[in-house]
Amino acid sequence: xxxxxxxxxxxxxxxxxxxxxxxxxxxxxxxxxxxxxxxxxxxxxxxxxxxxxxxxxxxxxxxxxxxxxxxxxxxxxxxxxxxxxxxxxxxxxxxxxxxxxxxxxxxxxxxxxxxxxxxxxxxxxxxxxxxxxxxxxxxxxxxxxxxxxxxxxxxxxxxxxxxxxxxxxxxxxxxxxxxxxxxxxxxxxxxxxxxxxxxxxxxxxxxxxxxxxxxxxxxxxxxxxxxxxxxxxxxxxxxxxxxxxxxxxxxxxxxxxxxxxxxxxxxxxxxxxxxxxxxxxxxxxxxxxxxxxxxxxxx
Amino acid sequence: xxxxxxxxxxxxxxxxxxxxxxxxxxxxxxxxxxxxxxxxxxxxxxxxxxxxxxxxxxxxxxxxxxxxxxxxxxxxxxxxxxxxxxxxxxxxxxxxxxxxxxxxxxxxxxxxxxxxxxxxxxxxxxxxxxxxxxxxxxxxxxxxxxxxxxxxxxxxxxxxxxxxxxxxxxxxxxxxxxxxxxxxxxxxxxxxxxxxxxxxxxxxxxxxxxxxxxxxxxxxxxxxxxxxxxxxxxxxxxxxxxxxxxxxxxxxxxxxxxxxxxxxxxxxxxxxxxxxxxxxxxxxxxxxxxxxxxxxxxxxxxxxxxxxxxxxxxxxxxxxxxxxxxxxxxxxxxxxxxxxxxxxxxxxxxxxxxxxxxxxxxxxxxxxxxxxxxxxxxxxxxxxxxxxxxxxxxxxxxxxxxxxxxxxxxxxxxxxx
Lengths: 299, 417
What we know:
By secondary structure, chain A is α+β, with helices and mostly antiparallel strands. In chain A, 28% of the residues lie in helices and 12% in strands.
């Protein structure tokens, strides 16, 4: 069983890696950043890194520099997020070990509770897909698989990737959503006009519209996260902004029984995510869209 | 000349900003006319009640969900914006290419274009849960969002249409200004339909939409359905005695229609080939498109092909294409085909979501249907009242065609809508 599972992500990595390095070669000079690209053109990357963001606290020659560099604020209006501290100098990222994931959906449930997702909403921020062995084929993935999971399948948790090039933020007609300086994509519930264009532009189905007024039992309410404001607007995963900006980790990371999720700061070279990105062969979902997601998978 | 805002030029005729509003004509209107207006009034009232329900209850009364974030309102937006093109293109060809045979249609065409775009915009407003937030489109527009371009283009285009109508009716600025207005309006019509297509095609997240051919397909479908609608309108008005047109005008219209139709169908076939050809077929595209041939969406897409090619075949027949019955049938077939096409286009982006999850076809809820019907009734009401009150017929001295006689004014575009 383990051997079977082992082989799958390896299969998956090969084409992703090939596409990535070929593309960055063609586009010339690392418009697309990734592990392989970073390894192949380090001289160029460190040259641009120095000129563009001299204030960035990244060390010279840091292989993650090009990734961190691209993860900038987009459409950031400079106003604070109501229910969280202001952004620090971190660059948040997540790495998910799909070899370890058993598809138990504990992250999904923890997330629903932490983020006051309406129990009647019909969506969750995290969607765990049951994948067929042998390929990364979303078109044959199953979202509503039986509770508990099947040891012959593998599981791919998908949520908001906090993309470095967020198509949702580009698509919002009124700048009601933006990317904070620490990389978290947030939504202004008081400004969203409910056009749902971000649901259309997101390649990861990570955004969800509150078609009904969200109902959260009073006893289960998280006082740190709004509820009423979310009626009739779009919401999504925020890397638990109310926790992570206070030094805590995300609810999904905390809930994972097998430690498949790692969350941390790419600006900190000693963080788990930094070490994983530098030492493991990682891949990202839908690399071909060029959204530069900030969640990596490793298998 | 007149300093007063409202002057009376004849009994019952009021001149406001140079336009003669023949309110008196309403008094002489027949029973059938008022019955129809009353019916429209009832539908509009139902629509307002439905909109109120939607505002009070939010999205829960809609059939749209995360898998179908856009529904009937968006189909109608594309459809109405498209239909308004035809009118304008016919009108523009009068001024720019000297197609004199279309001249009697010019005022009607511009009015139709303006009203249809207005319906498209009202459709967006009635879909919003908090319509007042639309003001952010003006306060903080985002330059990378196609919505900003299509929204502003539709608003400006609507204004251009109504100003144009005013110029045509009052004769203000003479032929020169009318010509210049056309020079602005025609590129703007194309711009509007291009940006509408961009709302779909500029999405790398949605596989079947992300194709450059989407823009020309939008333009050709728009022109074909718009010309077809104008042809139907013209026949209805002729049969009601509102206008009289030369049969050569209908022949020109249907030739134009057949030409645009076949270009439209050609682009569609090219796109289908690209999706399924072994050397270009991508699994994501093929899986999504196959639902539209053999799956649960076939009812929406197969009619596009059958009605489309059927309509072209009717107009292609040399011996029969001059017959009014053939022209009307082909036009109706194509207007219906384009509606199905708009629905299919929307569903192609949504039927299988970005994580590969399939969902069954979307059907609008009662509230959505009532809102849409209410809006349609608003459009018909404007056209019905305008047919009586506004001087839509082009005066005799301005063209050499048959004299246009405003007859016992019955609703002009009733069946056409």
